[in-house]
Design a protein that fits this description.
The complex is a heterodimer of chains A (789) and B (161).
Chain A (H helix, E strand, L loop, with lengths): L15 H5 L15 E7 L5 E7 L1 H4 L4 E5 L36 E2 L5 E7 L2 H9 L2 E6 L6 H4 L15 E7 L4 H9 L3 E9 L11 E7 L4 E6 L4 H13 L6 E4 L15 H13 L3 E4 L2 H7 L6 E9 L5 E13 L27 E9 L13 H19 L3 H8 L6 E2 L5 E2 L4 H11 L5 H10 L3 E10 L7 H6 L8 E7 L5 E5 L8 H13 L6 E4 L17 H27 L7 E4 L2 E4 L5 E3 H9 L14 E6 L8 E10 L6 E11 L6 H20 L54 H20 L14 H9 L1
Parallel strand pairs in A: 1-12, 10-11, 14-15, 20-21
Antiparallel strand pairs in A: 1-5, 2-4, 2-6, 3-5, 7-15, 8-13, 9-10, 9-12, 13-14, 16-17, 18-26, 19-20, 19-25, 22-23, 23-24, 26-27
Helix pairs in contact in A: 9-18, 14-15, 15-16, 17-18
Chain B lengths: L1 E7 L2 E7 L5 H8 L18 E4 L2 E4 L12 E3 L13 H8 L9 H14 L5 H7 L11 H10 L4 H4 L3
Parallel strand pairs in B: 1-5
Antiparallel strand pairs in B: 1-2, 3-4, 3-5
Classes of the chains: A alpha+beta (789), B alpha+beta (161).
Chain lengths: 789, 161
């Protein structure tokens, strides 16, 4: 029987009721009394020198309160970067200034130049059209390789070139890797593009700044995955507002996928403007603005070489990558192609030697930062594609070559710094082989061929590093933050329990899952537990939700705080029952003395803590409220094996996904229903990247050609099949209290190579043996051209 | 400004509107019915779906003035009379057909319109019908299951999980 409550139960989500009845509270649903509206005038050229901005006519327009320009922000800081990468030569990365509003130059289409604040949004928009901009357009740098050529136009004149950093990892292994590749029995080489995509949460970003003149406090309502991080970055580094005078609220947030981690200029502008104008100021992004101002994802160009010995064991991996940073460094951008990417290049395999070279490049494009998976999808894509190509070149089974190289003993110290604590890759592959019915593939292919279609089967394995991360470790790697998580657990006098967590839910279901854990620990019914998140005023300093970290890090903090509460309640119960503290047991919501029939109810202990008439006041304080900060000992390492079957129409090149099967190891699973949903969503995003999505710039002008849903192909309901997902073969994480690994990104990490492997298999089955790779997205045009090229 | 009168979720409302005021702006800002969402500016995403005179309409594609005299239904009016979730809403909760919730009102309104015309749609019919509603969280799997379940079909069996 499946459990009906507590850990492992598919408890239905309590947050659904408000979302299904239209009573959610998203940021754009908030109106602050007296608010004015801001409209950003953005650059319509990719690169240019600002000679002058004439706002006189605009300022005279009806309803206009003020027009801000870059000059207004000379006295404040720029948008900060939260991660400093050190290059191969021991030098810090180049870190350009990132002004709130463009100053001197515009550097990408969408770069904000002016912020028009008016009584109504319409008035603000109308006034923006009356601003006279004198901008000399400069040549745009779009292509990364060209950006690194001598004499290339500079995105930032003061930096001297467009190279942010030249990173090598593991630098000490470079010569050994070169030697291993030189001496290999076989080397497979693959050049590929990990296409630029846009995260596209369905809720566009919104910011509302408010200033209380009486107290001098500022409040920012914003669509964020991590309100405390925004408070710290914006308060300390941009506007100079101390944290005790700044509150950041991120209420219901309509998806994030990474794009709502970062501190954006619009948040700083609204907060600044509210104080300057003594009026609340609201900005709601349009979708078109989102395309040109939300951080984009991926955009790597890589050459990967895989060396094998005569027995098909992997002996070395060498990669060379250009990673697009865009025009400015977004909050965590430098970490993505480096520490979130190079550390996964061993994959599921015992490859002893790895060397990754990554050159990060500035271009006249929207900044690129972490998008669902962040670095790990890029690592998995290149590694699993090159393994598939090697299997074809050597004429061996793609599953067997992977199995031959699997890591089988844990803990396993990789050559790329990280140590995998647990896993069982063979078991995942066994599960996949059965669930995906590989035995029936030949018959299905024959059926497809009868219809004139080409059927392909692609498989893929992956491992990722989640639950970011031990603070001391990431500090050594350049993070300018700790990556713990926090929780305060408060038990009220009447017995209900509230968890105030630094994690933030924007679709993950924390309000349902966290109470399941508490229920398991305490015996309280889940409805007695409430989760508060998303408001710096009533939650402890926390780092927020990204990198599949909520249950692994935030959940661990909650467990630790709850353990403190339970220990205190045991002391109180021991006093009430005149028993030894060590003899007290908590079971099914009451405290009993081991080996006796004496017990005291949960509620009686709560009441005693707040009405301490009969209470050990000399030993413990009244009240029941405890806080824990949990700093993880290691990353967690979810892993999986995925299979995809596609049909390719040889006449048109159109790809249809027919089946998608997964076998994941997420460690222990708290709510299987929610975990299934997380995998489904990740798969659709990966399939979207593989088949449909592409953020496209004109290579000459730097114009963004895909700035709306008319031009950017989002996956729709008829682009994906039903998915067959499994996560019953988990190996618990060995270093966190719940044994959890995280499930938010797996689908997005594991799916792109699976799809491309399947399409290459299908195309080759049609006799197109020369097609060993097609770059994503595998649009009909690209697939047709590959077959007929 | 022109005065418009319409019935919204069974209640008659009259308000002055700007000539270029979209129905979705009217619902969200004038009536504070904020369950109808705006996810794009090209009428692609479907987060603003409502019913106008029983037909599924993207509320960003029509002016408020055009709805003068119309019967409008929004997500806020979909629950049963006693406040409990209706059969479609309940199916979405039972089958985890939503995550962040932003596209959800539009999905529910679209599902209701589909089932009115086609009480037992096939998987393919549902997927085709939902082309105008984008969800970024669920991969559509559980949305399709929920709509099948709401139509009395064995969703788990059809989904071949």
């Amino acid at each position: 029987m499946p459990k009906d409550h507590g850990i492992g139960a598919s408890t239905k989500r309590r947050e659904d009721v408000r979302f299904l009845t239209g009573t959610g509270n998203y940021t754009d649903d908030i109106n602050v009394y007296g608010q004015a509206y801001v409209h950003f005038l953005r650059s319509d050229v990719a690169h240019g020198t600002i000679n002058g901005i004439d706002t006189a006519a605009a300022e005279a327009m009806p309803g206009v309160l003020h027009i801000f320009t870059g000059k207004d922000f000379e006295a404040v800081g720029g948008i900060p970067c939260g991660w400093q990468v050190t290059d191969r030569f021991g030098q810090p990365m180049k870190e350009p200034k990132h002004p709130v509003l463009a100053h001197g130059k515009v550097r990408h289409v969408g770069d904000p130049i002016c912020a028009v604040v008016a009584e109504t949004l319409e008035q603000a928009r109308d006034a923006a059209e009356a601003i006279e901009l004198d901008i000399d357009e400069l040549p745009a740098v779009v292509n990364m390789a060209k950006a690194l050529e001598d004499g290339a136009t500079l995105v930032h004149d003061d930096l001297g070139d467009n190279l942010c950093y030249d990173w090598g990892f593991v630098e000490e292994n470079k010569e050994a890797v070169d030697e291993a590749i030189k001496n290999a029995a076989h080397v497979t080489t693959l050049e590929l593009v990990n296409n630029r995509v846009v995260p596209n949460p369905m809720e566009p970003r919104v910011a509302i700044g408010d200033f209380n003149a009486a107290s001098g406090d500022s409040t920012l309502y914003t669509t964020s995955q991590n309100p405390h991080v925004i408070r710290l970055l914006m308060g300390a580094f941009v506007l100079g507002i101390p944290e005790h005078k700044l509150r950041v609220v991120a209420p219901d947030v309509g998806g994030g996928f990474g794009s709502k981690i970062y501190h954006y200029a619009e948040e700083a502008l609204c907060t600044f403007a509210a104080k300057a104008l003594k009026r609340p100021v609201k900005w709601t992004s349009t979708r078109s603005e989102a395309f040109m101002s939300d951080a984009h994802g991926r955009d790597h160009v890589t050459t990967i070489e895989l060396a094998l010995d005569a027995d098909h064991k992997f002996t070395a991996v060498r990669t060379s990558t250009l990673a697009n940073m865009g025009a400015y460094l977004s909050t965590f951008a430098p970490s993505v192609p480096t520490w979130l990417h190079g550390t996964l290049m061993a994959g599921n395999y015992t490859t002893p030697l790895v060397y990754c070279n990554v050159r990060a490049v500035f271009t006249n494009t929207v900044p690129v930062d972490a998008y669902r998976g962040a670095g790990r999808p890029e690592a998995t894509y290149q590694l699993e594609r090159v393994i598939d190509k090697a299997a074809r070149e050597l004429g061996v089974d793609p599953i067997e070559i992977r199995r031959k190289n699997f890591v089988t003993e844990f803990p396993y110290q990789t050559p790329v710094a990280v140590e995998y604590d647990s896993g069982d890759f063979h078991r995942l592959m066994d599960k996949l082989e059965a669930a995906a019915d590989f035995g029936g593939f030949a018959a299905r292919r024959a059926e497809s061929e009868k219809k004139g279609m080409l059927r392909g089967l692609g498989i893929n394995c992956f491992i990722e590093a989640c639950g970011i991360a031990p603070s001391n470790l990431v500090g050594q790697l350049g993070a300018r933050a700790g990556l713990y998580e926090s929780a305060t657990v408060r038990v009220n006098a009447t017995g209900g329990l509230v968890v105030m967590t630094g994690s933030h839910s924007h679709g993950q279901g924390h309000e349902t899952v966290f109470p399941q854990v508490i229920s398991e620990m305490t015996g309280l019914e889940e409805h007695m537990v409430e989760i508060e998140h998303g408001d710096t005023a009533n939650t402890p300093m926390g780092m927020g939700t990204y990198g599949s970290r909520s249950i692994a890090v935030g959940g661990s903090a909650m467990v630790r705080a709850t353990e403190k509460i339970i220990n205190k309640m045991k002391k109180i119960a021991a006093h009430l029952m005149e028993a030894a503290e060590g003899d007290i047991e908590l079971k099914d919501g009451s405290f009993s003395v081991a080996g006796t029939d004496k017990s005291v109810a949960w509620g009686d202990v709560c009441l005693a803590a707040y009405v301490p008439h009969n209470y050990p006041l000399e030993d413990i304080e009244p009240g029941l409220e405890e806080t824990a900060f949990y700093d993880p000992a290691n990353f967690t390492y979810p892993a999986g094996a995925y299979a995809c079957e596609v049909e390719v129409d040889p006449e048109t090149g159109k790809v249809r996904i027919d089946r998608f099967t997964t076998a994941d190891d997420f460690g222990n699973v708290m709510n299987p229903m929610i975990v299934d949903g997380q995998v489904h969503g990740g798969l659709a995003q990966g399939i979207g990247q593989a088949l449909l999505e592409n953020s496209t710039y004109d290579p000459e002008t730097g114009q963004l050609l895909s700035a709306s849903y008319m031009d950017y192909a989002m996956p729709r309901a008829d682009d994906v099949p039903f998915f067959k997902v499994d996560h019953t073969n988990g190996t618990p994480c060995t270093h966190n209290p719940l044994g959890v690994k995280g499930c938010g990104e797996a689908g997005a990490i594991g799916s792109t190579p699976t799809v491309v492997n399947a399409v290459v298999d299908a195309v080759q089955s049609g006799g197109h043996k020369h097609v060993t790779h097609i770059d994503m997205p595998l649009t009909p045009g690209r697939v047709w051209a590959a077959m007929n090229g | 400004m022109t005065e418009v009168t319409m019935t919204v979720n069974g209640k008659s409302v009259s308000r002055p509107v700007r000539g270029n005021e979209l129905l979705v702006e009217f619902l969200r800002e004038q009536l504070r019915l904020t369950g109808t969402h705006v996810g794009c500016d090209t009428s692609q995403c479907g987060a603003c779906c409502v019913h106008v005179n029983g037909e599924l309409v993207k509320a960003c594609t029509m002016f408020a003035a055009e709805a003068d005299g119309a019967e409008v239904a929004t997500i806020e009016g979909m629950a049963n009379a006693d406040g409990s979730l209706n059969v479609i809403q309940q199916a979405f909760q039972d089958h985890h057909g939503l995550q962040c919730g932003f596209c959800t009102p539009g999905m529910v309104m679209a599902a209701a319109a589909l089932l009115k015309d086609n009480p037992t749609p096939t998987e393919a019919e549902i997927r085709h019908y939902l082309q105008g509603n984008i969800c970024r969280c669920t991969g559509y799997h559980n949305i399709i299951k929920a709509i099948m379940a709401a139509s009395g079909q064995d969703a788990g069996k059809i989904a071949a999980e």
